[in-house]
Amino acid sequence: MTIKKGIHQHLFVSSFYGITCFVSAPGYWNTIKLPLDNKDIGEIISMDVFSSVHSDLIFALTTAHSGQNDDDPQSQFSLRIYSLGVLISNFMEDAIFKVVEENCQSIRLHFTPMQLVHTKIDKDGEDCIVLLLCGTDGGVHLYIEDKYTKEWKESPVQPYYPFLAGLADSESKILSLEIKEFGNVKFIAAGCQNGMLHISILKQNESTGDFEREQSSVALFSPITSISIFASSTSKDKPEEIHMLVTCAVEQAIIYCYVDKEILKHPLYLRECSKHDSVLCSHIMDIDWDGKNEILIGTYGRELLIYKQNVNSQGMIIYQLLWQRSFTHPIYRITGLDLNEDGIEELIVATQYGVHILQPNLYKAKERLLKVLNEIDILNKKCKEIST
Amino acid sequence: MKSICLVERVKWKFAGNMNPHAFDFGDVDNDKDNEFVIGNLKGELSVFKGISAANDGQPYVTCSGLGTITCVAVGDIRNSGKNSIVCVNAEGQCHIFDITSSNESDPTTHDENIPASSKKNNDIQTPAMRPIIIDSPKVIEKPTLTLSVPVNCNRILIADIDGDGINEIILARTDRILQVFNFQTPLPPIDSTASIKPSLIKGQPILKEKKKWCFDGQITSLSIAKDPNTSSPLLIVGQPGGHFMIIEKNEKKTFFPTQVSGDQSGEEFTEVSTEIVRGTVFKNGKYVDVVALITMDGKFTLYDLQSSSISNYELQGTHKLFGMASMDLCINDINDESLDNEILNDPEKSAKKYDNVFVVCAWNGCTYVIDHDFNVVKFEFEGRVCAFAAGQYAITPGHNVNCFLYVDFEDQITVYYNLRINTKPVTNFIEIMRGQFNKFDELLGDIVQDYDQEKGALSNGSYQSTSNITEFFHQCLYQLDDYKDMKAKLIETLKRKTREEEEKKPNELREKNELIEENGLLESVIYQEKEKDVEKSESRNKEQNQNQNKQDDLVLISEQDIIQDVETQELEGLEIENTLDNVIGGCDDVAHKLQLNQITNTDNEQFNTQETQT
Predict the structure, then answer these.
(1) How far apart are the first and last CA of chain B?
(2) Is A217 helix (H, G, I), strand (E, B) or coil?
(3) How much of chain A is helix, strand and coil, in % rounded to 5?
(4) Using an 8 Å Cβ cutoff, are B357 and B329 in contact?
(5) Which letter, b or e, does each residue of B594-604 get, where b requires 16 or more Cβ atoms within 10 Å of its Cβ?
(6) How many domains in chain B?
(7) Rounded to two decimals, what is the model's pTM?
(8) How far apart are CA A383 and CA B494, in angstroms?
(9) The predicted structure's pLDDT at residue B600
């Protein structure tokens, strides 16, 4: 889980019994174990960190108490939200300690919580960050912060995400949820334990301003472990091609190409993935600084695979295996951020027993950067030349 | 301290308790590939060669009934250019094995049927990874030779310690006596006639005692080094409590550290076992030997033979340290095809010679890789360790690579190979870019806020306050959009400036004519490019109407043009630059609009007004 604070980005890693924060700093990083009382909290199931309009640092956890005397087994689960409040701190280290000290809000859950994500919604004309929590009761629960009391309360999903509310009727348990927005197209994708993949695409018509909704579902027959909707290029203004990567426990990873137009009609399979046991996680990142996103896949078979998009002789999109590396333990999560603040993003791989930090080849980065600098430099010089 | 995980490993079978020093790496069958020899207290000796799934962790050669094996070494004891295995037991026997090509003619080993000479050639011609298939370990009935040596030897070293060009066998005994032997084959009697075959006359070879020394403390380890000043060999004998004795070839003995009474307390002289290895450091254009010591309680000491200076480092381990080895990580780098080649190709790096590193292991499996600057990398082997070895081993024929070997208490040896260990601290990208700043001073000064201060801070070695430079670099690498925008803006200014100039002197007809020509040229280019990109843009912008589509095409082309622009300039220099300047100036209307479109992409109103302009 990463959080962006100003230009700094920090990393939170959770294990069953604790949370460690990697605080980035120029040239190094600090690791801080959050001062949480394990007895109070119990086992951590899922976690989310973000900042909102009201608070610099909000920190949400779903936990399970191994209640030995509890008659009601459902009451073991809770959602805990720590919020930094009005205190603003320039140092992440400081903020972390303060956020834990601050009064924590605990919400009892009557279902087993799963993935916890935050997303932005439009509430009464204002942007507002809400928490979405998938549960084993088949539904997605929405939690919203009260503007005045600063209390988090459950609120119906229907007004904001009618698509997700519709899914609650089915018996499926949502394992992974992805909500993304590219320009005026909004995607919501949900992957279920029974292998059902649901997607809803909201497009805003440019001329009328109306929303057009398209929905589709497909059965993949094995639990869906991760979904990433991504643009093939890192360009923010005009994403050219939008694809969706879906990984599931048994089958190989699938890329639904041009998901914004073709929806699920154009699947592409990443065959090498199936050689390394279940795919547990995926990440999208430009690892070779060419402006094109690569696909990173982590498997239970301890393998990290990186795919690069290419075009074959027929002009069709293909994905080629670019790099792979074995780890000692199953890979649970992959992310990328600049931990030592040197301008280069490190690759973070969380495995069963630890966090691996991989640094790209800095000499290749140098080569690339020099090329870019040269180009700008020439333009810049020419500019000056003319102005004089 | 960096922590690493090692992934690639194999497991071998090896049973029984062992002396933690009864092993050695070496080329026992003289094929230039290193094997691993290990002996246990039950008298079983195993030689491992290569790895493959087929041999299922079985040894290559075994021999049993060798007594209580206390130390094993591989070396050229006969001074014949061929290595032998020397295996010494506590009962005073020294077994010598010559595993030569004739011994290898056993049909169970496929690869070895070919005579040694042709086999070697074969290996050179086909260095491909040919797995060695060993169906079952070859059992050797008895050693080639068994000689008697003193009892209770616990350390062995095969080396030329007196500089006479002949290897000696140095044996350290548990009764604190160190003996040096020469392997000698009695010469045939002088009166022998030529008719008698020499082999018949050759008597039993003997070990002739050359020297004998007594020590005050237990001899905990043996090593050799080269005197950096005289290049003559030095024998280094480890003594308890982090002490050692250097014996020069003229038998001059020096005890180190010379006087401990001054700065250290009297309690320092504890009887902890000391391991010694030789390391090399690249200094003033040549490799210089350094002695490294580790005591069981974690005191790591480097002794510079040249300056006689001592530097210490305390390893914060919870368990006793026992196994130590020296390793040259550079060798792995050369073999590593993926990432490190890049570094080697880099002139700055390849010119820099590598120092070796030291590897220390604790009983609980914690392994520390320490370099000469005391950077430590930690690896945790899961399981308790009976013996630890680090050295060069031929995993595949023809390549000796660095390996870690852990002998555990569950009758297994775990071999880790393809060790990609870098002891250096995490490199900062800014540090790598530092040398390049001067080239782009002008550009960075224009774009990066507070560039001069940040550059100044950087030259003082501070990476803490370069946030603006870092951010700019990050943009250049990850946000190509911003970079393109920047380019667009630059070209924008460029055009504005040109136009201003044009307005100043509107009467120059000659130039205008030129411009018109260029304008036509550019349009044709646009047309060509457009055809190429129609497909692409259609798929991208289906929902957009025809006009917009056209607009979009142009945006794309203009971007391409800009890129081409730069590339051509780089290629062909100033001549083209001038013409291109004109092109950009000439097609001002079109390009100008395009740039605006790009910047205010979302602004529909402006978009439309420009549309009408055309």
Answers:
(1) 65
(2) strand
(3) 15, 50, 35
(4) yes
(5) bbbbbeeeeee
(6) 2
(7) 0.75
(8) 5
(9) 30
* B272 strand-pairing partners: none
**Are B67 and B195 found together in one domain?**
yes
- For the segment B113-135, the average pLDDT, to the nearest whole number, is 42
Residues of B in contact with A185 (CB under 8 A): none
What does the DSSP 8-state code read for residue B103?
G
Q: Let me know whether B398 and B434 are in one domain.
A: no
The amino acid that residue A388 corresponds to is T
Using CA atoms, how far apart are residues B446 and A382, in angstroms rounded to an integer?
13
HSE (side-chain half, CA atoms, 13 Å) at B366: 17
Q: Which helix (H) or strand (E) holds B408?
A: strand B399-408
- The C-alpha atoms of residue B605 and residue A182 are separated, in whole angstroms, by 22
Whether residues B477 and A240 touch (CB distance < 8 A) is answered with: no
Together in a domain, B210 and B329: yes
A214 touches B at CB < 8 Å: no
B113 and B74 fall within a common domain: yes
Alpha helices in A109-203, H assignment, sequence order: 162-167
Q: Which residues pair with B226 in a beta bridge?
A: B233
Distance CA B180, CA B164 (A): 14
Residues B55, B137, single domain; the answer is yes
Dihedrals phi, psi of B257, to nearest 5 degrees: -65, 140
CA pair distance A349, A33, nearest whole angstrom? 18
Of A210-219, B139-148, B318-327, B451-460, where does mean pLDDT reach its minimum? B451-460
In a domain, B444, yes or no: yes
Inter-chain CB proximity B479 and A356 less than 8 Å: no
Name beta bridge partners: A21: A12, A32
Contact A26 B471 (CB under 8 A): no
Which of A235, A338, A384 is the closest to B474 by Cβ? A338
ipTM associated with this complex: 0.86
Q: State whether B21 and B108 are in the same domain.
A: yes
CB–CB of A342 and B339 under 8 A? no
Give A94 to chain B, closest Cα distance, Å: 19
Tokens of B318: 């919870």
Using a CB-CB cut-off of 8 Å, the residues of chain A touching B494 are 379, 382-383, 386
Instruction: Point out which residues pair with A25 in neighbouring strands.
Output: A28
Tell me, yes or no, whether B210 lies in a domain: yes
DSSP helix/strand/coil, A162 = helix
Q: Cα separation of B506 and B430, whole Å? A: 48
Using a CB-CB cut-off of 8 Å, the residues of chain A touching B498 are 386
Calculate ∠ Cα A297-A299-A303, nearest 5°: 85
Distance, CA of A275 to CA of A86 (rounded, Å): 50
User: How large is the average pLDDT for residues B584-610?
Assistant: 32
Give the separation between CA B112 and CA A70, rounded to whole angstroms. 70
Q: Are A229 and A180 in contact (CB under 8 A)?
A: yes
- pLDDT 10s per residue in chain A (388 long)? 455 444 567 777 777 667 888 888 887 888 888 887 766 777 888 888 888 777 778 888 888 876 655 555 545 788 988 887 665 666 777 777 777 776 788 888 888 888 899 988 888 878 888 999 988 887 889 999 888 888 888 989 888 888 888 887 667 788 889 998 888 888 999 998 888 899 999 888 777 777 888 899 999 888 999 999 998 887 766 657 889 999 988 878 899 999 888 888 889 998 888 888 889 999 999 888 888 899 999 999 889 999 999 888 888 889 999 888 889 889 999 998 888 888 888 899 998 888 888 888 888 888 888 988 888 888 778 777 776 6
CB-based contacts of B500: which residues, under 8 Å, 6+ apart? none
